[in-house]
What we know:
Layout: H1 7-14, E1 25-26, E2 35-36, E3 43-44, E4 47-48, E5 51-58, E6 65-70, E7 76-83, H2 90-103, E8 117-119, E9 129-134, E10 143-151, E11 154-162, H3 167-180, E12 197-198, H4 216-227, H5 232-237, E13 243-246, E14 253-258, E15 265-269, E16 275-280, E17 291-296, E18 300-307, H6 313-322, E19 327-330, E20 336-338
Parallel strand pairs: 12-13
Antiparallel strand pairs: 1-5, 2-3, 4-5, 5-6, 6-7, 7-11, 8-9, 9-10, 10-11, 13-14, 14-15, 15-16, 16-17, 17-18, 18-19, 19-20
Amino acid sequence: MLIKSLVAAALLASVTAAPAVAQQRTLSVQAGAAWTHVQTGVTLPATLIGIPRDAVTDNSAKEIDVAAAYGNGAATTVTLYVFRPALTSVPVWFDRSETQILLRDIYANPTAPAPVAAFAPPRSAAASGLRRIYVPGRGPYKSTGLAMMPLGDWLVVVRISSQQLDAAALDAKLSEVIAALGWPDRVADTLAAAPVAPCATPLAYAKNAKLKAPDMTDALLGATLATIQPDPKEVAKATPVTWCREGEATSQYGVYRANGDATGYSIAMGDAGAAISVWPALDLGKGKPGYQLSLGLLDRTLIFPSFDKLPAPAAAVSAVTSNNPISSTERGSKNIVITTGK
């Protein structure tokens, strides 16, 4: 199944000014009946490819990180995920999920018979989803597969594994699962997806990058920028973003750049939707603006003191896990909480 990494929870728990980490809860879902996720309109059937649904759980208090398991303990299992990542990108989170699959001991260095394939999700004309099948090197599973589809700023993920089906048969079953999902009537087409590739030229990080002193202007400006929502019409007309991966991905995080941008980067933590952003701060005529540092969670964005120079990813992760945020804002809200007095 998709590994819902504890990295995001650890990050949030380490930030003392942040709210408490939500515990996983089991949702009250009628057995034998389809269940609809209200915020997206996606319906999870009571059975999938003949496999009954088990529990539906939520790793949040707002149904923004939902999972439904099918066939626990059976020869073939399916897990569905519906969540709202901080960084809305099928290529980035597919790459993170694939990295977790490739590194899992239970799959023992799996191989992929075919490249990552783009496909059109239900009721969509754009090939905005990505999918792939993997063959474990050894162990109980003969095959395992992953598919990821966008739905606005949400992601719908399918993980399927089998102890009986070979790669070709599992690929067919994956298509059946996707087709069996209840998709909302009105789905705005999103941009076509392309798999992440390694960045052609590495970034040059400053070896002595340091955090600047907490600043009220940075706190207010950073949180204000986080409240700005892109116009859906402009997004629909935009050129698809091509993401590249900076350096080697690990189970803890991967570093990504949009369109080969050389001024900053995003760090996708684990595969659970949390992301750190490092970008040039706005120049307000007060000297060198430095680099803004923020942590996007599924429900909010936390702003941290800026770096004076472009930090290495490890330094950015360390700064987020060892410092308090200077401001924050809930996702979809214009309200800003300032937590620095300087």
